[in-house]
Specification:
Chain A: It comes from Hymenobacter cyanobacteriorum. Chain A: Keywords: Hydrolase. Chain A: GO terms for molecular function: hydrolase activity, acting on ester bonds. The complex is a heterodimer of chains A (468) and B (431). Chain A has 2 domains: 41-91 and 154-291 and 366-460, Rossmann fold (3-Layer(aba) Sandwich), CATH 3.40.50.1110; 297-360, no CATH class. Chain A is 34% helix and 11% strand. Chain A is built from 16 helices and 14 strands. Chain A has a 4-stranded parallel sheet with strand order 1-6-7-12, with helices on both faces. Chain A has a two-stranded antiparallel sheet with strand order 2-3. In chain A, helix 4 (66-74) packs across helix 16 (431-449) and helix 10 packs parallel to helix 14. The model of chain A has no long low-confidence stretch (mean pLDDT 93). Chain B has one domain (3-178, 198-223, 260-430): Porin. Chain B has helices at 3-11, 32-36, 50-53, 242-246, 400-406, and strands spanning 65-71, 73-81, 94-95, 98-104, 111-118, 122-126, 139-156, 159-181, 184-193, 197-206, 212-219, 222-234, 253-260, 263-270, 276-285, 292-301, 313-319, 325-335, 340-349, 367-377, 382-393, 396-398, 414-430. The model of chain B is unreliable at 1-19 (pLDDT under 50). The chains are: A alpha/beta (468), B mainly beta (431). At the A-B interface, helix 1 and strand 2 of A face strand 1, strand 2, helix 4, helix 5 and strand 23 of B.
Chain lengths: 468, 431
């Protein structure tokens, strides 16, 4: 029997291979643009649009920004943009503003912020973790922030500016009814090019300090746009534990009147009053991000109890009649609280409570969510009025934070670092997260414009980087 | 010939089929003559392969004989992901399901006894590197060999019964996939041997006239149980992240159970002339026994998601919820001369896998099967049987939405299309 098998198997295999020479073909679905015109695509927005990740803007993450991915997928219809320009840093300064890395510190993987080289004022500096940062050494006149290497090309197509809000984008937006506040805020929006280094680097020198963002984006003539603005009108306030920075007119919760005015202005500008197709994305509920869900009250309380069995819990400093109270599970601690507590022991006693800027307490959570919903209503109405699609990123991110998001059998979640979707700053997505966001945009675009733009495979994009 | 020597012979082969020739990972390659006739055989008494198709028919097989057949199954699987782009395929592994039968009995007697060795279930697939479903499966080898001592008795000249003890004499499973570690891709291999298990194969054969015959048969389920299979990893981090990541992968042993389901068949044979034989079969494979694929690990493994990291769970469970699968088969044999017989057949096999449950280890779908074969009697005793089987799976697409609805996101969305080519050859010696 063996003889038969040994003699005939090669012959049979050869016969079979000959007959089985061709792989069965699966016709790929055809990509089409539907009623959309992708020939010139422009992205308007903030850090999320710029490709900001791990607490910084740097070339590697920027290359996976959702606008870059959208442009790449639009091109698969054969009628996409000829090229889509992102304002990258020069190769020698590819790490831009620097980015957080996960490093082994005292035996535990810890996110480490890049800081300047050691100096007398900053003895523990880490020389930007060896990253090729793009700081020029100068400070911005309007804010004292570090200046970044200027972007030298023509006006890019990705116009995302990290940190920008609707209020700071439009020098006519502020409409609180208080003349002094409005004057100061409008003035700051006009001068935003010498306040925000990410905006300053995009502007030609002559425009810095005078040209506001709405005017800047009005210089483009897009045939298709995405607009994801408004996040920083609540996020800046929330991530600072609902503490307003007196020196920064854009650090509060933007009021609905000012937001409505600014937002309508932005969308009317980029859509040429509703004649250009596009998508407006709304504001995800910021309390669902890892920044507010990684350092939990329960975990900190347990750590205190391990040190002192009599510890009653975590003392926090809050606004209101009782300035210090014990935190409950309804109070959210910021990601930055971890290092602060470790360094100072804050929160362990009523005399040393955790400062308010590290806590988004239950009342503040409600305030932030309510304002987010109000602003989202304005975004939805503005999209409708300009006849463009609405990407409901609020619902999308809520789904992710509740149930995770599976990409080709890989379980992704809103868990800090290991969840793959959120980067090491706890706020901004990873390249994987941006790929998932791009797919949601594509889903909305395909639906609204009857297009069939293929989606990207998120597994081809990385999550947070863990050292080997 | 003893069971042991048979096994040694079988061990020299790569035994399994690439999801060939029946629903799920069933392999319906029982005998070369039958393969050429679309896989019919329950209502026929062609040769010693009756032990596989219907043990009841063995007593009606006129001659004593020994026969062996071997097939080369070549599967071509194409997969196109939900993201479009280039389709991927599988490496072209040739696997060789085989069959061996020896049947003896007194001439003109009522008894017949024999032994059968065959490969009723198996699958071998190796997907291209970096394919979209790499975190579900990169490679599978599933092998089983049944040894079946059989006895058959003719109660009357027109009615015979038969029974065989099926022994899962050899079973092996090897599963490999990539791990989506935060430090980059790792790889895991599960490899185990199945314990010896027993079942039965019974049948009744009825031949009221020379022109008509009919049969029913039933082969019972055997659970292939792997205990203490080996778990091996590669690509785990060795430096800074080792402590964080590797605690999720402490298992080095696994156990699992895979049902090799029961099959019930009915068949009819029609012999309008001396030269022509036609067979019609219908069979039902009780795949509904396969509800989930559960692994128990000696340490951490599986897709624990509590801290967002891969690994970190001592069990894993993957839904299957297969459905019972019907197959209809028809085939004919025409004796051109005393020496030469030609055959042709066709069958349609319904899929065992529901929409939204298609996994890469069995990219199952409804299948159309076409076969042809011939036999040449070299001498009075010795003959050669050749067969060829072509199997075309209907194109099958599942979406991520279906996977989410069913809780089956441990497999990938996309489109599968499979074709299988199985040339085979056999020798028979009758006396």
């Amino acid at each position: 029997m063996n003889l038969l098998i040994n003699r005939t198997t090669p012959a049979l295999a050869l016969l079979g291979l000959g007959l089985a020479g061709c792989q069965p073909d699966i016709d790929a679905p055809t990509a089409s643009t539907g009623s959309a015109n992708f020939s010139s695509y422009v992205a308007v927005g903030n850090s999320l649009t710029s490709g900001y990740s791990d607490g910084g803007l740097y070339n590697e993450a920027q290359s996976a920004s959702y606008p870059a991915l959208l442009a790449q997928q639009f091109a698969k219809t054969g009628k996409g943009p000829a090229n889509f320009v992102q304002p990258s840093f020069s190769a020698a300064k590819k790490d831009g503003s620097g980015y957080i890395k996960l490093l082994l510190v005292n035996g535990a993987l810890t996110p480490v912020q890049p800081t300047p080289p050691p100096s007398t004022t900053n003895p523990n500096g880490n020389s930007y973790l060896g990253e090729a940062v793009a700081f020029t050494g100068n400070k911005l006149a309007g804010s004292g922030q570090d200046e970044l290497e200027a972007y030298s090309g023509n006006q890019p197509d990705n116009l995302g500016v990290p940190g920008i809000s609707v209020l700071s984008a439009d020098k006519t937006a502020s409409s609180t009814g208080v003349a002094a506040i409005d004057a100061a805020t409008r003035g700051a929006a006009a001068a935003y090019g010498i306040i925000n280094p990410f905006y300053q680097r995009l502007l030609p020198a002559a425009d810095r300090g005078t040209k506001d963002y709405v005017t800047y984006i009005g210089q483009k003539s897009a045939t298709f746009f995405t607009c994801w603005m408004g996040n920083n009108d609540v996020l800046t306030y929330a991530t600072n534990g609902a503490v307003v920075d007196a020196a920064n007119p854009f650090s509060g919760l933007t009021d609905t009147t000012s937001f409505g005015k600014g937002y309508r202005n932005i969308v009317a500008t980029i859509s040429k009053n509703g004649t250009v197709g596009g998508v407006c994305a709304n504001i995800p509920n910021v309390t669902g991000i890892p920044y507010f869900n990684t350092v939990t009250v329960a975990a900190v309380a347990a750590a205190f109890k391990a040190q002192n069995a009599a510890s009653p819990g975590v003392f926090i400093s809050v606004a209101g009649t009782t300035p210090v109270r014990l935190a409950t599970s309804a109070d959210l601690l910021t990601l930055t609280a971890q290092a602060y507590i470790a360094a100072t022991g804050a929160g362990s006693t009523p005399t040393n409570p955790l400062p308010s800027k590290y806590v988004l307490d239950a009342a503040e959570v409600t305030t932030v969510i309510n304002r987010t919903n109000q602003l989202n209503a304005i975004i939805a109405k503005t999209a409708r009025q300009n006849k463009v699609a609405l990407a409901d990123m609020n619902t999308f991110f809520n789904t992710i934070s509740q149930s995770g998001f599976v990409t080709s059998t890989v379980n992704n979640s809103a868990t800090f670092a290991s969840g793959n979707l959120f980067s090491l700053d706890g706020v901004h997505p990873t390249p994987r997260g941006y790929a998932v966001v791009a797919n949601e945009f594509i889903r909305v675009i395909n639906d609204f414009y009857r297009a069939s733009v293929p989606t990207v495979n998120p597994n081809n994009y990385r999550g947070a980087v863990f050292p080997q | 010939m003893t069971v042991k020597t048979l096994l040694l012979a079988g061990g020299a082969l790569l035994v399994s089929a690439s999801a060939a020739s029946a629903s799920g990972f069933q392999v319906n390659l029982g005998g070369q003559k039958n393969i050429g006739m679309g896989g019919v055989g329950v209502g026929l008494s062609l040769d010693q392969a009756a032990m596989f198709y219907n043990p009841g028919a063995l007593a009606m097989v006129r001659e004593n004989g020994v026969q062996v057949g071997v097939n080369a199954a070549i599967a071509r699987v194409s997969y196109s992901s939900q993201y479009g782009g280039d389709q991927t395929g599988i490496d072209h592994k040739v696997v060789t399901p085989f069959n061996f039968y020896a049947g003896f009995g007194p001439k003109e007697g009522k008894f017949k006894a024999g032994i059968a060795v065959y490969t009723p279930y198996g699958s071998t697939l190796k997907y291209n590197d970096n394919w979209d479903g790499r975190y579900a499966l990169t490679e599978i080898t599933l092998q089983s060999i049944y040894v079946q001592p059989t006895a058959s008795f003719a109660i009357t000249p027109t009615l015979s019964v038969g029974a065989g003890l099926t022994i899962l004499a050899y079973g092996n499973v090897n599963l490999q996939k990539d791990l989506p570690l935060p430090t980059g891709n790792g790889h895991i291999t599960l490899d185990g041997k199945a314990k010896t298990q027993f079942g039965y194969n019974v049948g009744i054969f009825f031949k009221p006239t020379d022109k008509l015959s009919a049969g029913v048969s039933y082969r019972s389920r055997i659970n292939a149980e792997v205990e203490s299979g080996d778990v091996t990893y590669s690509g785990l981090p060795t430096g800074a992240s080792a402590a964080t990541v590797n605690r999720g992968f402490t298992a080095n042993k696994f156990s699992a159970t895979l049902p090799l389901p029961a099959v019930a068949s009915v068949g009819v044979g029609i012999t309008p002339t001396d030269k022509l034989t036609i067979g019609l079969d219908a069979s039902l494979t009780f795949w509904s026994a396969y509800r989930s694929l559960d692994f128990a690990f000696s340490g951490n493994n599986g897709n624990g998601t509590t801290d967002g990291l891969v690994g970190g769970n001592t069990t894993s469970s993957s839904k299957r919820y297969y459905q019972d699968a019907l197959a209809f088969r028809v085939g004919g044999q025409y004796k051109v001369s005393d020496k030469l017989a030609v055959r042709a057949g066709a069958s349609y096999d319904f899929t065992a896998v529901k929409d939204g449950y298609v996994g890469p280890e069995t990219p199952d779908a409804d299948r159309v099967i076409l076969t042809a074969g011939l036999s040449y009697q070299v001498t009075e005793h010795l003959g050669v049987d050749a067969s060829f089987l072509f199997e075309d799976f209907l194109k099958r697409t599942q979406t991520q939405a279906q996977l989410l609805d069913n809780g089956t996101t441990d497999r990938v969305a996309g489109t599968y299309k499979t074709q299988v080519y199985v040339p085979g050859i056999g020798l028979h010696y009758k006396f």
